[in-house]
Write a structure and sequence with these properties.
The chain is mostly helical and 237 residues long. Helix content is 59%, strand content 5%. It has helices at 7-35, 39-63, 77-112, 116-164, and strands spanning 172-173, 183-185, 191-192, 228-230, 233-234. A hairpin with a 5-residue loop joins strand 2 (183-185) and strand 3. Helix 3 packs antiparallel against helix 4 (116-164). The radius of gyration is 25 Å and the shape is elongated.
Length: 237
């Protein structure tokens, strides 16, 4: 079903928002009446909240069919990563909108209303949304790093398979140039490329491995710099 530029797309988005809000509202009500000692009513609100969640999920599946997982066992690693990456993209998009547009705008309006309490609340939420976006962005960055790692693993397995067939091993060598010499983590196989750097960790592109601070750690597994060794690549034919 093509929902591009349709009223249904907007209606699904509104319905998703409404059902999601109802879920959190009923959970809040559940906590309120629980404090009042009304256990049965608290249970009713929780059960209804769960039902609203299922309604919201149904709407979201229609909005994003690319995220619907049937039999996960039939998906390739690349397909799984593509789905996870899409989730991260949407999460980053939402959190970034919140801290760049929504909460700053709300805070500004609250200042105009001279509502100091609301200003403080919106500023707190803006900070939290910014932190969430940074977390999701970091995760997305790590997926990019994992792509190179899995490629490295695939190459290793391919070489091992060829060796079983009697093919001579691939000749590998170091580049000898610090500006392009890659290093690999012995713990998780994360590959540091000086051309790219590790911007999320404050390491600018073009930084040779030797120039990285000694307290730098692998962005994937947290291993120390000493855990890395020179990465040897296949020699050019």
């Amino acid at each position: 079903m093509n929902l591009e530029n349709s009223n249904t797309a907007k209606n699904l988005e509104d319905a998703f928002g409404g059902e999601s809000m109802a879920n959190r509202k009923y959970l809040f009500f559940s906590e309120v009446v629980k404090q009042l000692g009304m256990a049965d009513l608290a249970k009713l609100f929780r059960e209804t909240a769960n039902q609203e969640t299922e309604h919201a999920f149904a709407h979201f599946r229609l909005m994003h069919p690319e995220l619907v997982v049937g039999d996960a066992t039939k998906l390739t690693d690349s397909e799984k990563k593509a789905i996870a990456s899409r989730c991260l993209e949407l999460a980053i998009e939402g959190e970034t909108y919140e801290y760049q547009v929504m909460y700053p705008g709300f805070a500004e309006q609250a200042r105009g209303d001279r509502d100091d309490g609301a200003v403080a609340e919106f500023e707190v939420q803006e900070k939290e949304s910014r932190e969430h976006a940074q977390i999701f962005r970091k995760a997305a960055h790590n997926f990019g790093l994992l792509t190179h790692i899995e490629n490295h693993h695939a190459q290793q397995y391919g070489e091992a398979l060829k060796a079983l067939d009697g093919t001579a091993p691939v000749v590998k060598m170091q580049t000898g140039n610090p500006a392009t010499q890659k290093w690999i983590c012995r713990q998780c196989s994360m590959i540091y490329d000086p051309v790219v750097g590790d911007v999320d960790s404050g390491i600018a592109a073009g930084t040779a491995f030797a120039d990285i601070p000694e307290d730098w750690r692998c962005p994937i597994c947290g291993a120390t710099k000493k855990t890395f060794v020179v990465y040897e690549e296949a020699a050019a034919a």
